[in-house]
Q: What sequence folds into this?
């Protein structure tokens, strides 16, 4: 009888964490590709009982509390830690940097330290905000980070903690423009605005470029990289790129709304302006996945259609 892999998940109630839990349970996340339809899945079908999972979030494990993190890890003794727990309120981070660094940097230090003490492999979920967005090309894993926001600096701090404590064995997964069936995201915001004012014009910026990512697909990659104990940094996004203007037009079209209602504006025209600077270029080249011979995530338009199909009142 195969012994289950013991997995500790942080941020388990978030939009990515909920889908990670489904994948670990052998379920298809909401908006995910049915297992029978996957030609080359990042994660083959999970057999029931393959993973013994401890799901944690802020209500059950405070990452800022070093002793609590150590107790949780030593008590469960995981083989794998999937660390998605974070303070992700990008604009709020600007006015509360201590909380951002306490959770995203020090909290990751505590988790990396505890994981190392029991020999667990650590996967840390990071962000496109570690880059300044000034490059003309998509960022590869070996480009030098230069975050402009408090959120980006605090997440880069988490990356530095993983490298310092986990060394060559830790895994860093950078992703961007994340949406899913659970929690708040741009897909749900666009659909809410479209439904609330059917005749209103929706204004979205057309000078921020990125690669939309969907948690139903991302969760598979996170679990696969962790279960394989793949070391190093990986950029993991759905394939293809767009702007927020182009993205919202596609959201409305997928839900049967008129995409011409969406009007392009510049970031400088946002009223009120956002406290945290956004990278003009958030495009992440999934070079490490590709060069490792691992399957890439599907096109973002395909993933969006799958998500919109399962959201209530999307049409």
A:
């Amino acid at each position: 009888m195969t012994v289950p892999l013991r997995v500790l998940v942080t941020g388990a109630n978030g939009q990515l964490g909920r889908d990670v839990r489904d994948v670990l349970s052998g379920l298809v996340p909401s908006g995910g590709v049915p297992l029978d339809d996957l030609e080359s899945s990042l994660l083959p079908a999970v057999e029931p009982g393959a993973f013994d999972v401890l799901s944690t979030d802020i209500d059950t494990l405070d990452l800022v509390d070093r002793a609590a993190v150590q107790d949780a890890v030593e008590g469960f003794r995981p083989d794998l830690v999937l660390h998605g727990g974070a303070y992700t309120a990008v604009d709020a981070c600007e006015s509360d940097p201590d909380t951002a660094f306490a959770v995203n940097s020090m909290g990751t230090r505590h988790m990396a330290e505890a994981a190392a003490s029991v020999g667990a492999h650590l996967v840390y979920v990071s962000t496109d905000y570690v880059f300044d967005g000034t490059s003309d090309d998509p960022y590869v894993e070996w480009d030098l980070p230069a975050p402009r926001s408090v959120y980006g600096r605090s997440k880069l701090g988490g990356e530095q903690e993983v490298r310092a404590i986990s060394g060559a064995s830790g895994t860093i997964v950078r992703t961007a423009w994340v949406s899913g069936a659970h929690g708040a995201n741009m897909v749900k915001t666009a659909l809410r605005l479209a439904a609330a004012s059917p005749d209103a014009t929706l204004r979205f910026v057309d000078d921020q470029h990125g690669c939309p990512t969907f948690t139903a697909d991302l969760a598979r990659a996170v679990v696969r990289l962790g279960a394989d104990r793949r070391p190093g940094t990986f950029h993991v996004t759905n394939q293809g790129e767009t702007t927020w203007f182009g993205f919202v037009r596609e959201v409305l079209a997928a839900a049967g709304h008129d995409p011409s209602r969406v009007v392009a504006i510049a970031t400088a025209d946002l009223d009120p302006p956002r406290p945290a600077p956004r990278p003009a270029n958030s495009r992440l080249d999934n070079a490490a996945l590709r060069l490792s011979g691992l399957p890439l995530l599907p096109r973002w338009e395909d993933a969006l259609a799958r998500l919109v199909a399962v959201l209530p009142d999307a049409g």
Notes: The chain has ten helices and twelve strands. The mean pLDDT is 94. The longest strand covers residues 121-127. Residues 5-185+212-239+283-298 form a domain with the Rossmann fold fold (CATH 3.40.50.720).
